[in-house]
Amino acid sequence: MPAGKTNMTAPHWPALRLLALALSGAWLSSSAWAESYFNPAFLSDDEAGVADLSRFEKGNQQPAGVYRVDIWRNEEFIGAQDLAFTAAGGKPPTAGGLAPCITSSLLSRLGVNRAAFPALAKYATDTCVPLETAIPGSEAAFDFAAMKLSISLPQVAMLNSARGYIPPEEWDEGITAALANYSFSGSKGTNDDSYFLSLQSGLNYGPWRLRNNGTWNYSRNDGQHQNSWRNVATWLQRAIIPWKSELVLGDSNTGSDVFDSVGFRGGRLYSSDSMYPDSLQGFAPTVRGIARTPAKVTIRQNGYVVYQSYVQSGAFAISDLNPTSSSGDLEVTVDEKDGSQQRYTVPYSSVPLLQREGRIKYDLVAGDYRSGNNDQSTPFFAQGTLIAGLAGGFTLYGGTQLSERYTAVAIGAGKNFGDWGAISLDVTHARSQLADDSRHEGQSLRFLYAKSLNSVGTNFQLLGYRYSTEGFFTLDDTTWKTMSGYQYSDDQKDKDGVPDIISYHNLTMNKKGRFQVNVSQSLGRFGSLYVSGSEQSYWGTGDTNTWYQFGYSGGWRGVSYSLSWSWNRSVGIPGTDRIAAFNLSVPFSIFSPGEGALNRAYATVAASRNSDGDDSWQSGVSGTLLEGNNLSYSVTQGNASGRGATGSASANWQATYGTLGAAYNYDRDQHDFNWQAAGGILAHADGVTFSQPLGDTNVLIKAPGATGVSVENQTGVKTDWRGYAVMPYATVYRYNRVALDPNSMGNNTDIENNVSSVVPTEGAVVRAAFDTRIGVRALITVRRGAQPVPFGAIVRETSRGITSMVGDDGQIYLSGLPLRGELLIQWGDGAAEQCRAPYTLPEKSLQQAITLTEVRCDR
């Protein structure tokens, strides 16, 4: 064709060639998987312009090698793994002509009872096993497009393990790392300032976890300053995998299955529920309450401040509490904006102690008693408990506590009664010597019940009662240095400079009866009701520690509303708090459906009234902003008794390197500003990575060079400038899916596989590594002389090893290319059937979605 002329039919040739190729393959196929002959004449008039395509003659063939695939066993996901595949004729097209190399070690991971198949003994651990012949009735199917390997195994070939079982060989102890978690909050008012810092630091080395928790508190009130640092706990912990147990040395807390949880400094060895498949992961209590005004919520446990935050007026629920103990009463203080306070206790107990048949659970502790309260002594004590699951749905349990001034023995039983729920009943006999050296002996009877009435939507999360005789005391009671007294706050005082009262004890009024309840009732489309509370009575007085909260919530077409009422009273602390509250939220999206910030906003109304006749109401707007909805905001305006007009504005940002929050509140008499900042720091072999607040167990994402890539299902989490990020709150001893969002990758970033799976042990920092290709995405047209290089030729970039294949008209798509390099193109086995094409791309190519260029290929 003369120079300067255009072939108008050229654009139609690719489609015609592909059509001819498909027709020829279909005509030559004698069966679905028969051999095909590719006639180069259908692709080009010049057969020299087509590479040797004999490797495709056997159908949908893929090269043998190692592929990362998702493994499924009997329709259950097992995990992702690099697996070797070999060429296998006769395979269906979806398998790509490949057969998996299933080794003895993989069969063990799948839970196969290898001892039941003697033929498997002759195969080495890394030798491919002929699955269908070695295990009759088994089958393996591979979907190359989905990279999914489905393995079907007969039930008789499986070990008797629970569904979801992950063998310990797959548990990842994690990498060596140093970590720190911080939470800083502060408030600056008209006459006072306060600051609170919680710092959790640690070091991981192999299976060992070293941790330290500390808090700093500063306050200023009318010229008086208070400054204190407290070491909450320091401990060393590791998993004992063969025993399915955890070892803790240092400051920790006993379990709460049989006896009340207490703090200690010593050693603890106990069964780990999380190591067992489908077992309970434990729980943290949800602390509910009602704030009449913008308020500060402080939660203490065992004398330590474990949580402090600021809430807006109305009902609140704190569900992300990380207490220092696995159980134990939580003392909640709500400091209202008008200077008033609410105080109540939230009981934190476990559900009935049922275990599976054959399960043995133990807990051994020895050390000094530790409460964080200077009014209590630190005697040495030992404790042991044992829980055994028996046939017929029964569970037997018991234990003992021993110290110089205290001896207790407990025994109990539980049973699952099916439709009637689960019940446990136990009795504890104790001998005690109190602060006045008086000796006592008594018993305590405890009853616990749990049941879900799914047919009527009722859930008894916990319903329990404990009765104690007049001579019964706990280990905690015997540690008090005085028979009665108040515990005061070291860092919080009222406006007159008097320390706040935290708690009151009086051993002449020992515990008698305790009732606690947590029940919810679904009303279907009409909403739901709940009641939570507890009541503790004492010998020698008619007063009780009482706390109850009732609530109703519902919704209609996106509109949500709730009504709640709380009542609390404490022995030795004057006053009774009764508060009623109403909340309403209306989304703007019901007025103008669509996208945008307005459709993620809500109009809110809140009102409350307490037993003193004080009432307040607020109305405002709240919602989320930014592309990832990681910036939340709220603006309110209202009125309160005795304070006149009130208002507030708050915002919270879940950023890549932490979370930030700020709020401004005002009323007639004062203005104050409070803020919160929290985040994590992780130091590892590849450097230092900043993150949102860390969890107990974390995943370090490593994608070198992939900057600003979002992590799926993690609000605000993105890789930093080096390609690292931390995904907090991983589930221990379970598969955790870690996925990078491909839509957030830059034009110069490609990742071979954007999904990884990890199984961390308790407290581990596990690494999820991704193979990244940072460079240019380019569509390069390569010509050899006046002709394009042959169709189907193999292409390799010589410096990075990136491979591709030549398409129509010599076009080659490659990603991850350096700006300068060389392409090696081969269309046969001979030296004359290859050429090299050096190329140079402009700097701006790194910012382009795809770069188009043309180069020449010389021999």
UniProtKB/TrEMBL annotation:
Assigned keywords, A-Z: Cell outer membrane, Fimbrium biogenesis, Membrane, Signal, Transmembrane, Transmembrane beta strand, Transport
Protein's cellular compartments: Cell outer membrane
Signal peptide: 1-34
Cellular-component GO terms for this entry: cell outer membrane
Entry-linked Gene3D superfamilies: 2.60.40.2070, 2.60.40.3110, 3.10.20.410, Outer membrane usher protein FimD, plug domain
An annotated Gene Ontology molecular function: fimbrial usher porin activity
Location of the PapC N-terminal domain: 37-185
GO BP terms: pilus assembly
Predominant location: membrane
Pfam families in UniProt: PapC_C, PapC_N, Usher
Domain PapC-like C-terminal: 779-843
Entry membrane topology: Multi-pass membrane protein
Coiled-coil portions: none
NCBIfam families per record: PRK15193.1, PRK15198.1
Family: Belongs to the fimbrial export usher family.
Protein name: Fimbrial biogenesis outer membrane usher protein
